[in-house]
Amino acid sequence: MKYKKRKYFLAGRINLIQRSKIRELFEKAKKMDDVISLGIGEPDFDTPEVIKEAAKRAIDEGYTHYTPNAGIPEFREAIAEYYKTHYKVDVSPNDIIVTAGAYEATYLAFQTLLEQDDDVIIPDPAFVCYVEDAKIAEAGIIRIPLREENEFQIDPDELVEAITKRTRMLVINYPNNPTGAVLKKKTVKAIADIAEDYNLYILSDEPYEHFLYEGAKHYPMIKYAPDNTILANSFSKTFAMTGWRLGFTIAPTQVIKDMIKLHAYVIGNVTSFIQIAGITALRDKRSWDALETMRQTYAERRKLVLHHLHKMPHITPFKPKGAFYIWAKIDPELDMTSEDFANWLLENAGVVVIPGTAFGKQGEGWVRISYATEKEKLIEAMERMNEALSKL
Fold first, then answer.
1. Which of 163, 227, 273, 372 has an alpha carbon 20 to 30 Å from 45's alpha carbon atom?
2. Which residues form the Aminotransferase class I/classII large domain (predicted)?
3. Which segments of the chain have a pLDDT < 50?
4. Mapping DSSP to helix (H, G, I), strand (E, B) and coil, where does residue 90 land?
């Protein structure tokens, strides 16, 4: 018997994963001249100097070797201290894993808690990785809509209606990417009660927790449902450390032990000297001063972009209270899909925005605009958009 020769042998599950529409648009933009990107979800600030110096010092002090799989004990203690100081929440350092950003934290949660035929509830719109993580876990995906009239918060009644006998986990992400919405305290409590009543895990992805405006507050889910919450967080946004790949997960003791087993085979441990820098990030006042400067700058940019968008034809912004994105509605009379509109803006204004459908079907008719870009470029981008849209 002869076998058909193939150059590559690929696992079928890899074909379940869709390439990010965000990346596709960026690649198209790279081939064009004079483009301003309002698409990327990355701080344009440099990492605070005190953190960089801590990493350099750690290398010189010999932090170039393996660490415990879960992370350096002092770093996990610093994370626990942070939650005690900021939120009055008691967390054991033993219930914390240091991860390669929040991306790995969410991946660990999906792979540890879900299996074939389990259901996971994911809001729509939502950050792009959740659905793809669910596919890899072979879990059933239930999307619940985030509605403008509800300020893009999860509706507890709709959440209850979506729960099935197979539902094991709910994903939430507030302050929200892409909408910039913030959960009210009563909604957080309602979700916590539902999780406890229906024995659900909550994967709460909270990397934008410090970027809040107009008196908005963040309520970490772990404070209200500690026995049901897997909290994913990251240093990427808080301290402008996207390239450092530093995050962490907090979960109940019985869950964290199994997450550590998987983590040990995925990456072993996060880079040692980066963990030492993380201790400085959390404990040094200069890190927090730098964060406050970033937050104030984002607040000014947010105000600027909203001002310009309100004067533009054919686009209406939702007023965000968190993160550094504006979720803007496309005029239905244009008869353009979100992708059509984003491509049209790129070609006619030289401005990158992200089509809402990159985040789910409910994103149709919307685009995400990032204001993590310096003021001068934001102003120019707004002027370009206004000029182009005024011709429609």
1. 273
2. 34-384
3. none
4. coil
Phi and psi dihedrals of 213, rounded to 5? -140, 155
Cis peptide before 207 (omega within 30 of 0): no
Cβ–Cβ < 8 Å for 136, 111: yes
Q: Cα–Cα distance between 254 and 215 in angstroms, integer?
A: 37
Note the CATH architecture for domain 49-284: 3-Layer(aba) Sandwich (3.40)
The Cα–Cα gap between 205 and 133 comes to: 14
Cα torsion 154, 158, 162, 165: sign:
positive
pLDDT, position 5:
63
Q: 9-30 burial, b for 16+ CB within 10 Å, e for fewer?
A: eeeeeeeeeeeebbeebbeebe
CB 15 within 8 A of CB 135: no
Domain boundaries, the chain: 12-46+288-390, 49-284
Measured between alpha carbons, how far is 178 from 156 in angstroms, rounded to an integer? Answer: 20
In order of 65, 213, 221, the CA distances from 280 in angstroms are 19, 26, 25
- Contact between 185 and 219 (Cβ < 8 Å): yes
**pTM (2 d.p.):** 0.94
CATH number of 12-46+288-390: 3.90.1150.10
| Cβ neighbours of 228 (radius 10 Å) | 24
Q: Check residue 28 and give its pLDDT.
A: 74
pLDDT for res 359:
96
